[in-house]
Design goal:
Membrane topology: Single-pass type II membrane protein
Pathway: Protein modification; protein glycosylation
Number of strands: 12
Shape: globular
Bound molecules: uridine-5'-diphosphate, manganese (II) ion
Helix content: 25-40%
GO molecular function: galactosylgalactosylxylosylprotein 3-beta-glucuronosyltransferase activity; metal ion binding
Radius of gyration: 19 Å
Protein name: Galactosylgalactosylxylosylprotein 3-beta-glucuronosyltransferase
EC number: 2.4.1.135
Length: 256
Amino acid sequence: GLPVIYLITPTYTRLEQKAELTRLSHTLMLVKNIHWIVIEDSESQTDLVARFLKQTGLNYTHLNVPTPAEFKLNMDDPNWLKPRGVLQRNAGLEWLRRNTSPRRQPGVVYFADDDNTYSLKLFDEMRFTKKVSVWPVGLVGYLRYEKPIVQNGKVIAWFTYWKPNRPFPMDMAGFAINLQLLHDHPEAAFTNSVQRGYQESTLLSGLKISQDDLEPKANMCSEVLVWHTRTEKSKTRNEDNMIRKYGRGSDPRVEV
Ligand code: UDP
Ligand code: MN
């Protein structure tokens, strides 16, 4: 049948989390044969995410693994300082190796951060990935987009400003992997111990992929179908002001 799209989404508790997950879930509700693997960056699975996933009606798997303290971002750290979602994505990969058999049910694996914006067309593009498929990502790298440069159907170079000499200088949102390939390379994984920007390259090198293997999608990488959008941090300074002025703030029983 139709290959299943397995989405690996790391997520963490913050004010905007339920809003992000709601928006992403509504996109996924419009996609056929999808399995959403949601991995919380936490010591245990939260009720908020457990309840949220259940009510979506989507096929999903709920996992959790905490980021070790030494790799965790502090509140006022710039967000490029440390890698984000590394152990969570690895937990998703391990789950797939243990719980799927691509010979019986073919699949494709995509890393879908909770805050990006996904065109429905993207899922049609990635579904029949043979090894690794690639496409442009909008609003990333302090550019309008980053993308593979394609000539005669092959990726020959990359349009990117930052560290262009990385083996695969693209964002997590810019590629998908055939599920069989993941099973064929059981050691391939992300790691907290590589330089900034090398997560994608580390995984793809572990899958023994060469640039020549990449399958350009989205009309030979000429269309942007995913955007690396980022949500502004919500400020709640009037919560304290409410208490000071009126004697009470918002009701903590109301989930946001
Ligand atoms: N994330 C996480 N733990 C963190 C920070 C981020 O699991 O401490 C998740 C986040 O929910 C998202 C992904 O990792 O799905 C990438 O994080 P973010 O969007 O903050 O990074 P950026 O867009 O700056 O690469
Ligand atoms: Mn993001």
